[in-house]
Specification:
By secondary structure, the chain is an alpha+beta fold. It contains 13 helices and 6 strands.
C-alpha cells in the first residue's frame, strides 16, 4: 500500500463545502485541547471570544477595523497569486501607501481645494503602493529576478522609511515626545460608518466586485488565468506575459496602498507607530484560505479579524497569559489553511493485491482507495 498526493482534475462542489467545515471543526477541537491543558473551559472561552467579536455593535465595528486592511491586502495578494507571482510585499506596500497619504494630508492642506484633500490622499496612497509593487514586478518581468526576495526585502525599506519620518522630520513638535506626525486636518479624515469602522469597508466590497468581474468576465482576466496555469501556453497564444505581470502587480500594490491610506486617514488620522502590524503577511493566509476568490476574501478577512479581536478577549476576560491569544489563533488557523489544500488535492491510497483478485475502488471525501 502506498499513499499518493495528487491534484484533482476538477474541484467538486462537495469538497468546496465539506473541507472548510471539517477543517474548522478540527481547529476548534485542537483549540479546546489547548485550553483544557491550560486549565480553561473551552466552551466558556469560545463564548467569550464570540461575545467580544460579534456580541455588540461596538464589538462588530472593532472586528471590521481589523478585517478591512485584511480585505484590501488580501484582494491585492490574490491577484498576484493567480499568476503565480509570489508577492510577499503587501506589508511594505500598505506602509508606503500610508506614508504617501500622510504626506498629502499634511503638506497639501491649503495648497489644493479642501474638497480634494481626502481623495488626493487616498489616490496618493494607491499610487505609492502600486509603485512599490511595480519594482519587483519590473525586475521579474524584464530581468528575471526572483520576486519573493525582492518584494520581501522592500517591506523593511518601507517600514524603516516610515519610522524615520515619524521619529524625525515629520514628528509633531507639540507631540510631547510621542513618535508620530501632527494630526491630519478634519477634511482629510476618512468618514466612519459606525464605531471605528470606516469607508474602507465600502472600498473593499467595491474592489471585490470589480475584481470578480475582471477575472471572470474579461479578456484580461482570462489572460491572467492562462499565465498562472501555463506560461508556455500563454506565450504560444501570443499573450504579453511581461506586460500582464506588470499591470497585475500595479493593481495588487494599489489595493495594498489603499489599505494603508485608509488606516492613516480612517483610524489613527496621523502617521505613527503601529501602522505595520503584519496585515500584509496575514493577507497571504487570507488569500489562500479564500482560494483566490474575491468575494471569499471578504468573509475570510472578517474571520481573521474576529480571531485577532477574540484573542484579545481571551487575554482580558479569561485571565490567560498574553501569549495564549496568539497561540490559540495559530491552533485555529493552521488546520484551516492545511485543510484548504484538499479542495484542489486529494489523497489516493493504492493497495496492491494478487492479479487474480480485484475489487472495485472505493472513495471517501478527500481520499481514494484504488486496487
Amino acid at each position: 500500500m502506498r499513499i499518493v498526493f495528487e491534484k484533482r482534475q476538477s474541484v467538486s462542489r462537495q469538497a468546496i463545502i465539506l473541507v472548510p467545515v471539517i477543517s474548522f471543526l478540527v481547529s476548534l477541537l485542537l483549540g479546546a485541547i489547548l485550553l483544557l491543558v491550560s486549565g480553561a473551559n473551552p466552551l466558556t472561552t469560545y463564548a467569550a471570544m464570540a461575545r467580544g467579536t460579534f456580541g455588540s455593535v461596538y464589538s462588530l465595528s472593532e472586528t471590521l477595523v481589523k478585517a478591512i486592511p485584511l480585505m484590501l491586502t488580501g484582494l491585492g495578494v490574490s491577484i498576484a497569486f493567480r499568476m503565480q507571482f509570489w508577492n510577499i510585499g503587501a506589508e511594505g506596500q500598505l506602509v508606503l501607501g500610508g506614508v504617501a497619504a500622510a504626506w498629502a494630508a499634511l503638506f497639501l492642506n491649503g495648497v489644493i481645494p479642501d474638497v480634494l484633500l481626502l481623495p488626493v490622499a487616498i489616490l496618493a496612497g494607491m499610487l505609492a503602493g502600486a509603485f512599490w509593487a511595480g519594482v519587483p514586478a519590473g525586475l521579474k518581468a524584464y530581468l528575471g529576478v526572483d520576486e519573493t526576495l525582492t518584494s520581501l526585502m522592500l517591506n523593511y525599506v518601507a517600514i524603516l522609511l516610515a519610522s524615520h519620518l515619524y521619529y524625525g522630520p515629520w514628528r509633531d513638535p507639540q507631540g510631547y515626545g510621542f513618535p508620530g506626525t501632527a494630526q491630519f486636518p478634519v477634511i482629510a479624515w476618512l468618514p466612519r460608518l459606525w464605531g471605528r469602522a470606516h469607508w474602507g469597508l465600502i472600498f473593499a466590497v467595491i474592489a471585490a466586485a470589480l475584481l470578480w468581474f475582471i477575472l471572470n468576465r474579461t479578456r484580461w482576466g482570462f489572460e491572467l488565468k492562462i499565465i498562472g496555469e501555463n506560461k508556455t501556453a500563454a506565450h504560444y497564444l501570443g499573450i504579453n506575459i511581461a506586460r500582464n505581470v506588470l499591470l497585475a502587480l500595479l493593481l495588487s500594490g494599489a489595493l495594498s496602498g489603499l489599505a494603508g491610506a485608509c488606516e492613516v486617514t480612517g483610524i489613527s488620522r496621523r502617521l505613527q507607530q503601529g501602522l505595520s502590524i503584519g496585515y500584509g503577511y496575514t493577507a497571504i493566509i487570507v488569500a489562500w484560505m479564500a482560494q483566490l476568490n474575491p468575494f471569499a476574501v471578504l468573509f475570510v478577512a472578517v474571520l481573521m479579524g474576529a480571531l485577532l479581536v477574540g484573542g484579545d478577549q481571551v487575554q482580558m476576560m479569561m485571565r490567560l497569559p498574553a501569549s495564549m491569544g496568539l497561540v490559540l489563533q495559530g491552533m485555529i488557523l493552521f488546520p484551516m489553511l492545511a485543510g484548504s489544500l484538499f479542495t484542489e488535492y486529494r489523497l489516493r491510497l493504492i493497495h496492491r493485491e494478487p492479479a487474480a483478485e480485484t475489487s472495485p475502488a472505493t472513495s471517501v471525501p478527500g481520499a481514494e482507495v484504488q486496487s
